[in-house]
Amino acid sequence: MKRREISLILAGFLLFLIPLQIQTTVALPDLLPVNQMNINRNITGNIQTVTNMDVAQAQTASLISNPAEEEFVGDIQEALGESVGSASIFTADETVEDYKLAYERAKNANWGYTNLGIADVSDNLNVRAAAAEDGKLVGKLPKDAACEVLDMDDTWVHIKSGSVEGYVSREYLLTGIPAKHRAEELATTVARVTTDSLKVRAEANTDSEVITMVPMGEELEVAAVEGDWVRVLLDNEEAYVSAEFVEVSAELGTAVTMSELLYGQGISDVRVDICQYAKEFLGNPYVWGGTSLTKGTDCSGYVMSLYKKYGVSLPHSSRAQANCGTTIKVSEAQPGDLIFYGNGKNINHVAMYIGGGQVIHASNPKTGIRISNVSYRTPCKAVRILQD
Questions:
Q1: What is the mean predicted confidence (pLDDT) over 53-75?
Q2: Which CATH number fits the domain 188-251, given the four candidates 2.30.30.40, 3.40.50.1220, 3.90.180.10, 2.60.120.10?
Q3: Which side of the chain, N or C, has fewer Cβ within a 10 Å radius?
């Protein structure tokens, strides 16, 4: 009887100490949604994994890591009766590497933002220099792109995204928990190239064919990490890169500066116009075999539909489009010209050059219509369709 009374007293004391321990645990931002893994550190520095438990159970679970305390824990469980939260106390069987991975995920769950905002628009959200409808445009925040919320009032939000800082309408920006939930759906795992020129191979071995080369700093969408190799999406095809020469992380899209949307002097109006028209469909879906700029299109269908508005008929095939117009050097490309890419032997992708070293293209089902650097993979041909 005394043993039970002592256990009750200890259990009560334990619950009393919980707020104190919470204040002294490693500070992790409130990043994870309900029902996902939470990470706690006990006073010995051990990481404990708790799922669907309240704080009292988490505290008790942390004691189980020490076999010498198992009898004591049993007394506490007996004193507390049935579990206080929604699940029973358990002993975690994850490995140290599992804990480390979970901890890193927790640290990065907000994707580097302190106060995350997500553009909740169908196309692009205007970023202005001042908090006013007539404020100068300084950039565009594409649909579902992320930003750091610096300040806000009832009407305007002061944001920073990429190299763009300015004001957006609060009506079209998700913040707080809704922004985090949307980000979980949108985050793309990317492999950032850390070497001067990365070989992209058809298979996960060094004897495999080199499909293309990707320069330092470029990002490739990750399909899976497979040991020493990373399976990536090369537009709408899968390929492999060595894990040694990339950094894998989760990323959200950011704003585009107005300077990135300009084309320089000496460019004809029709070239400027077709590029502006193409950007109206940024973020729209990729659909293999599709030609709809709004409901879904593939790379050649996108280019074909853009040119159709300007009275130019093109075939629905990147390989066939490469045989149209006049072949030019990639370095001579002007906005509106077509840039082609291959898989080592054959042309299998087309994009439209928009100036500033960038192309716009229907890339893959994961990213849809997007803007990339012209050298995001090695171009193999450039063609001029507009003869102005």
A1: 41
A2: 2.30.30.40
A3: N
